[in-house]
Amino acid sequence: xxxxxxxxxxxxxxxxxxxxxxxxxxxxxxxxxxxxxxxxxxxxxxxxxxxxxxxxxxxxxxxxxxxxxxxxxxxxxxxxxxxxxxxxxxxxxxxxxxxxxx
Length: 102
Description:
Layout: H1 5-25, H2 29-46, H3 55-87, H4 94-101
Helix pairs in contact: 1-2, 1-3
């Protein structure tokens, strides 16, 4: 692997994480799942071939992993919101209750 390859790969991964963050912000969970799968496969192939990384590349990877952590936290928070919605029936307004009782 050339000495420039890790920096190029980190740049590509950083752009991909930005797309992942955008999908998370818009709560497009299908896109989040697709992005996570693609990026996991990329990292699984790329990282083992990196024998030595410069401090800049290590710093960039740390930043990317921190951003991933934030995405995973948002994903877990969304899952918990769905769990809560599934456990508790929606509260009805007085107008909706009156309609159902009629």
